[in-house]
Amino acid sequence: MIRRAIDAPVRHSRWAIAGALVGLLLAVVLFAPAAWLASGIAKATGDRLLLIDARGSLWTGSARLVLSPGAGSRDASELPERLGWRLRPVWIDGAVGLKLVLDQSCCIRPDAAVTARLGISRVNLRLPDASPDQPWIRWPAAWLVGLGTPWNTIAPDGQIAISAQQFVVEKSKGAWQVQGMTQLELRDFSSRLSSLSPLGSYQLNLMGASTPQLLLQTQRGPLQLSGQGSLGARTRFEGEATAAPGSEAALANLLNIIGRRDGVRSIISVG
Questions:
Q1: Which of 22, 89, 153, 173 has the fewest CB atoms within 10 Å distance of its CB?
Q2: Which residues make Cβ contacts (< 8 Å) with residue 9, sequence separation at least 6?
Q3: CA–CA separation, 134 and 161 (whole Å)
Q4: What pTM, to 2 d.p., does this model score?
Q5: What is the C-alpha to C-alpha distance for residues 128 and 138, in angstroms, rounded to an integer?
Q6: What's the pLDDT at 193?
Q7: Biggest alpha carbon–alpha carbon distance for the chain
Q8: Low pLDDT (below 50) residues in the chain
């Protein structure tokens, strides 16, 4: 009888401690400050993508979006408007997931959401569907100057547009799979290294496959870019840049910087 009388308060005490810990964990999750998100992104990108002056919480907040060459650098570039976000738990195809909506009136469609479906040993991330005519994201190309070399030398101008069609990235049992396609366009690109403006418009496609494929092509303009590659254990890309007839002299300096010169061509090689 005496032992039972002692055990009961002990059990009650353990449940009280467990309940307090669960409550504390929920409070941390629900009220996690936006600064925690900013710190995580900075660490994951080597201080190249920064959320400055982050306000609000992990779930609803805003910040200034900045590109930087890395830790300790004073060179950086900032988008003209603050980036807002809303992150919510959702139910996706019978599993717990997250829905992220970004809000930046200058640059991002407000009706497009990124979704992530979470499971045991599996993560499924899907970008919002958008056509090149009505892309999901439009950023000024001049923003890239904040990354430092070679962008601060090229000093690009124009627009970066991102769109996707049924683009899904899934990690299952340690293996990555990519489905669908996403496009990154550089529209009406120009550079201070050339008197020609614009130099052209270009599209880089990422196509899902057992080994995702990259395809670079020129849409228009005197600077001709082309190439292909793949994403796998190593990123590989082989391409070239040339000048359209009559533009060789005006583009000579830029071609010397873009890649390794081989006659009239400039060779671009990654991996």
A1: 173
A2: none
A3: 9
A4: 0.84
A5: 14
A6: 87
A7: 101
A8: 10, 15-28
**Is the four-CA dihedral 172, 98, 139, 134 of positive or negative sign?**
positive
First to last CA, the chain: 74
The DSSP line for 93-154 is TTEEEEEEEEEBTTTB-TT-EEEEEEETTEEEEEPPPBBTTB-SEEEEGGGGGGG-TTHHHH
- Helix and strand totals (H; E) in the chain: 4, 16
Q: What is the pLDDT of residue 245?
A: 94
Q: What secondary structure letter does DSSP report for 85?
A: E
- pLDDT value at position 172? 77
Q: How far apart are CA 187 and CA 119, in angstroms?
A: 39
Sole residue written with tokens 């004073």: 74
Token representation of residue 89:
């738990």
Helix (H) or strand (E) holding 241: strand 236-243
Residues 169, 207, 148: CA angle, nearest 5 degrees: 80
Q: Residue 170 is which amino acid?
A: E
